[in-house]
Amino acid sequence: MHIRIINPNTTASMTAAMHQAAQHQAATSTTVTATQPDAGPVSIESHFDEAISAVGVAEEVLKGEREGNIDAYVVACFGDPGLLAARELTRAPVIGIAEAAFHLATLVSTRFSIVTTLGRTGIIAEHLLEQYGFRHHCRRIRAAEIPVLDLEHHPDAAFKRIVEECCRARDEDGIGAIVLGCGGMAGLTAEISREVGLPVIEGVSAALKLAESLVSLGLHTSKHGDLDYPRPKAFTGTFSELSNLHFPLTR
Amino acid sequence: MHIRIINPNTTASMTAAMHQAAQHQAATSTTVTATQPDAGPVSIESHFDEAISAVGVAEEVLKGEREGNIDAYVVACFGDPGLLAARELTRAPVIGIAEAAFHLATLVSTRFSIVTTLGRTGIIAEHLLEQYGFRHHCRRIRAAEIPVLDLEHHPDAAFKRIVEECCRARDEDGIGAIVLGCGGMAGLTAEISREVGLPVIEGVSAALKLAESLVSLGLHTSKHGDLDYPRPKAFTGTFSELSNLHFPLTR
Amino acid sequence: MHIRIINPNTTASMTAAMHQAAQHQAATSTTVTATQPDAGPVSIESHFDEAISAVGVAEEVLKGEREGNIDAYVVACFGDPGLLAARELTRAPVIGIAEAAFHLATLVSTRFSIVTTLGRTGIIAEHLLEQYGFRHHCRRIRAAEIPVLDLEHHPDAAFKRIVEECCRARDEDGIGAIVLGCGGMAGLTAEISREVGLPVIEGVSAALKLAESLVSLGLHTSKHGDLDYPRPKAFTGTFSELSNLHFPLTR
Amino acid sequence: MHIRIINPNTTASMTAAMHQAAQHQAATSTTVTATQPDAGPVSIESHFDEAISAVGVAEEVLKGEREGNIDAYVVACFGDPGLLAARELTRAPVIGIAEAAFHLATLVSTRFSIVTTLGRTGIIAEHLLEQYGFRHHCRRIRAAEIPVLDLEHHPDAAFKRIVEECCRARDEDGIGAIVLGCGGMAGLTAEISREVGLPVIEGVSAALKLAESLVSLGLHTSKHGDLDYPRPKAFTGTFSELSNLHFPLTR
Amino acid sequence: MHIRIINPNTTASMTAAMHQAAQHQAATSTTVTATQPDAGPVSIESHFDEAISAVGVAEEVLKGEREGNIDAYVVACFGDPGLLAARELTRAPVIGIAEAAFHLATLVSTRFSIVTTLGRTGIIAEHLLEQYGFRHHCRRIRAAEIPVLDLEHHPDAAFKRIVEECCRARDEDGIGAIVLGCGGMAGLTAEISREVGLPVIEGVSAALKLAESLVSLGLHTSKHGDLDYPRPKAFTGTFSELSNLHFPLTR
Amino acid sequence: MHIRIINPNTTASMTAAMHQAAQHQAATSTTVTATQPDAGPVSIESHFDEAISAVGVAEEVLKGEREGNIDAYVVACFGDPGLLAARELTRAPVIGIAEAAFHLATLVSTRFSIVTTLGRTGIIAEHLLEQYGFRHHCRRIRAAEIPVLDLEHHPDAAFKRIVEECCRARDEDGIGAIVLGCGGMAGLTAEISREVGLPVIEGVSAALKLAESLVSLGLHTSKHGDLDYPRPKAFTGTFSELSNLHFPLTR
C-alpha cells in the first residue's frame, strides 16, 4: 500500500517532519511518500494562503494519479485546503488532517478542544467543524499565537507555548482530549501528550491511519454524484495544462 | 494487537459471521476474537432489546479487561448499545459499528443514506446521527423491512430486498455512499457493493480498522473527565458482582 | 389514577424520598406508588451505572404491566435511563424526570441552567438536551461536585453546595429558572427555591404532573411506529424470562 | 384553582367551544373561565391577524390580573400570539396551545406531524418549532386548506378534510402522533383520534393540563431576567391606558 | 424612490433622529420620509412593548399603502416588531433594522457581537438570530444597561457606556464587527466606530440601503405563499377599521 | 463609486454578460468594471474548477488593489470561490453572488429554492447555506442539468429548462422566491421572473447592490481579527510574485 502525504505548503523541512511522523505510524506493509507543491506559500496562516495552496494540492494529486501507484492521499494542513477538489480527481481516498483528527478525537472522548497556532486561523477550523458535523463536540478553539514556522525555527519556545495552552484546555474546558491544530506539530504529539496527560490527537498520523483503513477495506472516493471526476474542459493561461483532463488519468 | 468484537446479541452464528468479516479485514498482526453475552436477546430490533443488550456489552468488556490482553473493543450492533458505558470501563478504545460506518462514509462521499433492517429502528440511527454530528450528512434512513434474523434464515430473500433498497437510495437520494444499518449484513457488503456500484460501508470492518488505527497511534479512551472509570459502589441483587469494581481491573 | 414512580437506583431511602415528594404534589384522586429494581446500582453517576439501571427500569415496567392497574410511569433518575425502552413496553405514558424538568422550565423562563451532582454526568444531560431539542434553552450545566448519596448521608453540606451553585447560576448565567439535576434533590426543591429566589424545577414532581396530565387527556404512548411493542423473541441466560413476551402483557 | 382561557380571536362561539373542551378536561377542583378580546380579528390566519390579536391577549391578561384571582392563563391560538408579552405581565404561568401540544406530543411519540388549517400559516408553526426546540421532532406540517371559521360553519366537511390529512400523515410521515394545528379543532380531537388510530394532541386541553401542573407545583413565570414585569412607561393615543402600569397589578 | 421609515415607538424626537440618519445615507434620488404610530409605547424594551408597537407598525404600513407612492418600508426598532405582518400588507419590500444589521455584519466580518441597551431585550435579539439563521455568526449579546430614552435624555453618559461595552466586545469576543442593538443609536454610529476602530453596523441606515437595493432590483415582497396578502375578514371593536381590507389597497 | 465585478471563470462573453447585467442595475453614480482571471477554467462546475478559480479571484483583487481606485468587489460565481481569501486582501467590501442572492431572498420571502445548472454543484450551495446560516431558509436545491456554457451556446434550450425547473419549485416546494444558482443566468432574470411569477433573485445584481450599500455606508471589510491582511511571507515557484506582500497594497 502506497500512501502519499501532500504538504500543502512549500517548506521542505516541514514535509520531511510530517513524512517522518507518518512513517513512524505506518503499517509495515505501507509505503509512505511525501511531497509538496512546486509553488505556493511557505506556511498557511490565512484564507489567502489556503486558497493558493489548494492549487498545489490539486496538482500534487494529479501528479500522483499519473504516477499511477498511489492508494490514498493525505492533505497535511489543518485547514484541509482543496480537500473536496482533490477527492474529485481520484478514486483513491483523500483524507484531510483536520477531519482525521476530529473523527478520532470523538472516538476517545465526548468533547475536545483544539490548540492551534494563530488565533486568526480559528475561523477556518470553526467552518470545518460546522461542515463536518463536529461543532458541538469541540468546546473551544485555542491559539498559542505562534506563527507556523516558529515550530521549525523556535521549537522549544513553541513547544512551551503549546503545552501551556493545552494545559489550560485540560483544566478549564471540560474536555477529554485535545486536537493539535497544525500539521507542523506532528513531531511533538507524544511529548505534548506526556506533559498534558490527555489523549492528544494530531492529524497527520490520524489521517494516515484512516487512509490505510479505507484502502484495506477497498473503499474508494465515490464517483457517484458530487465527487465524480470533473468534466473535461478548457483551462486558460498558466493553468492550460489542466485542460481536457480525462479521468481516471492512469487508465 | 488483540481486538475483541462484542456481538451484543446472543446469536452465535451472527457472532461467527461478524468475526469472519472482521478477520478478513484485519491486519496480519492483529488477532481478532469475538464474543457475545451469556444473556440477552437473540437479535436487537427495539430500544428494549438494546437496553438489555447493553448489560451484556458492559459485562463482555469487564471480562475482556480481566483477561487483560485486549487492545480495543468493537460493539457490533448498529445502535451502538452501551457504547459510552463500555468506554468508561476501560482505557482501551471502544468503537461502535454505527459510528464507525458514519465516520468512514463521510470520508468517501459528501452525503450518504442508511439501509437498515426494520423501519422501527430508524429512530435509533437518527438519534445517533444527531449525537455524533452527522445529521446533515445522512440524506435518508431506509428500511428493507426484514427482521434481523432473516439475514441468517432467509439470506437470499434478505439480500434481494437490501439490494433493492440500496438501488433506490442510489437513484433517488442524491448520495455518494450507502451505510448498511445492521451488523448482520457484514458478510454481504462486497456483493451488495458490486450490485449497487457505490461505496457501501459496513460497520464491523469499519470499526475494526478504526480500532486498529487508534491502537497503532497509542490513543486510548480518555480517562480525564466524563469517560473516567466509574466510581466504585455497591450494586444489588443479580448485579452484585459489579459492586466495588476498582479500575483498571487488570492492574 | 395510579402513577408508578420507578427509582432506577436501588437505594430504598431515595425511593421513599421521591415517593413522598411525588405524593405531596399528586392530585387527591391520584394514587402514587414507588418502586425500585431488585438489582442494580445504589446510585447512578456514570453511563455504566445508567446502562445497568435501564434493565431495572424495564423490569419494573413489566412488573407494573402485569399488575395491570398502572396508568403512567415516572422514570426517576435525571439521565432518563431506559426511557424509550420503557415506552415500548406499555401503552401507558412513561415520563423521565430530566425531560419533565426541561419541558416545564421552558414554560416559565426563556433560558435555564442545570445544577447537578457530579460534573462527569453533565455529558448525559447534554446529550438529553440535544435529543429533546432544548440545547439552546439551557445556558449552562453546573455541578455541585457531590456524590449522589451525599444527598442522603450529608444532606446539610450537600444542600449548602447546591444552593451556592444555584446562586452562581442565577447571578452569572443570564437565566430565569434552574433545573435540579438529580432525583435525590426532590425533597429540597422548595427550600432551594426560597434561598435562590428563582423558579427551581425538580423532575420528580414535574414528571408526576405531566403523567397525570397525559392520563387525564387519554393520551397514551403511541403504538404506531417506532415505540410499538417489541417483537416477541428469544432472550437467553439470565434474561430468558423476557422471551416471547406478548404485549400488551395484561390483555 | 382558576385558569383563564384567552381566545385571541373574537369569535364567541369558538371561545365557547374551547371553554367547553377545556372544562371537560379540567380537574374537578379547577375553575375554567374563558374570554376573548373586545377588539380584533374573528379568526387568525396570517401574521397580520396574529399581530393584532396579540394586543387583545395582553389586554385580557391585564384584565385578569386586575381581577386578581387567576392562577394561570392559556393563550388559545395555535400561533401562540403574544405569549412572551403575556408572560411579562404576570407571575402566573401562561401557556400557549402550540407549545403545549408540541411538548405533550414528544412525550408519547418520537416524531409527530402537524395538521393545520391553511398552508400559509405553516410558517408560523415552523418558526415556533424552531424557537421551542422541536424542529426535528416534527416531520411535516400539513394543511387541510380550510379557513378557520369553516370549523364553525361547515364542521362536517372540515372534519372530513382534517381526517383525510391526518390519515396521510399517519401513513406517509413516519410518525407516532399528530398535533392539531388550530384551537378551533379542540372539540374534534376525540373523534379524529378514533378515526386515525394515533395519539392526536390538541393544544387547548394540553395547555390546560400544563397550566394546572405548574400551578400545583407552585411554579410561576420567572420574574428574574427577561420575563420580568415591563418597566412602567408612557403609552400614547388609544394605548394610553397602558401607561405607567405598576406590576404586579393586583398587589 | 420613496422609502418610509416607521419608528415603532411614539417618541417623535427619535423618529426625527432616525429620519436624519437615514436621509444622510440615502441616494440622492431617494426620498425618505419617517413616521411613527399614533398610539403605542414611547420606547420598546420588552416583549409587551413590542407586541403593542407591532399594531402601530401595521397601521403605518396600511397608511403608507393608501398614500400609494411608497416603494419600501423600514421597521426601525431592533426587535423587528411586526415585520412579517407588515410584509403581508404590501408588495413593497419591508426591512427590519435588526435583520439589516445582521446581514451587513456578516458581509464585512466572520463573527460579530451585538451591543444593545437593556439586558432583558437580549432574548429578543437571540430569537431573531435563530429565526434569521445568524445564531453562530453572533458571538455575544452585550447590554450597556441603559434605558432606550437615555439615548435622548442623557446622550453623553449613554454614549460613554456604549463605547465601553463595544471596546469590551472588540477585546474579548473574537469578533470583527459590532452591531448596535437599538435604532436610537443611529446618530452615534460614526462616532462609536471611530472610538472602537471596528466596523460598527447600525440598522436604520443598513435597512435603508437594503430597501433601496431591493427597489432598484425590482424585487418585491413575495405574494406567493405565506407572505400573501391577508384574507379579508371581520375585525371587531377598536380594530373594526381593519375589516375586509382588500389588497393591494391602492389598486 | 467604482465596483469591480470579478468573473472567476475565464469566458469573456460571460464576463461581458454579467458586466451588462450589473451595469443595468448600478446607480448612475457607480462605475462598474468587469474582469476575469488570466488563467483558469472556462466554467466552474466542480470543487476542482472552483479551487483553481479562487487563485484567479485573489489575483484579480490584488490587481484591483494596485489600481487603487476600487471601492468594492463582486465575486461572480455562485460558489463564492475564494471569497474569504479575497476579503483578507483588501479593506474594500467583497461580496459573493451566492451569499448576496441568499440574503436578498430572505428579505422578500420566508423560504426559497435554488435552481442551478448541474446537480453535482448542489453540494457547493449546500455547504454555503450551512456556513452562511440559511440552511433552513432554502427548501430545495434543484438542477436544470445543463452545463454552464450551454447558457452561452444554447440559450433558448437552457432558458426553457431553467423555467421548467423554476415552475416546479414554485408549485411543489412551498416557497416564496427562487434563487438562480449561476452567474451565467444574470441576463435571464427578468424574463424568468415574468414566466414564473415569483420574485427571482440573481446574484450578480444582488451583489452589486449590496456592494453599493456597504460603500455608501462607509463599511469596509474588518481588519480586526480573522479577516485581517495576510501576514507577509515567502511564496515559491510560479506564485513567487505573491511573496512579501505588504498591505494595504496601494497605501
Automatic annotation (TrEMBL), chains A, B, C, D, E, F:
Its EC number is 5.1.99.5. It catalyses: a D-5-monosubstituted hydantoin = a L-5-monosubstituted hydantoin; D-5-isobutylhydantoin = L-5-isobutylhydantoin; D-5-benzylhydantoin = L-5-benzylhydantoin. Signal peptide: none annotated. GO terms for molecular function: amino-acid racemase activity; hydantoin racemase activity. PANTHER family: PROTEIN DCG1. Belongs to the HyuE racemase family. This is Hydantoin racemase. It comes from Vreelandella andesensis.
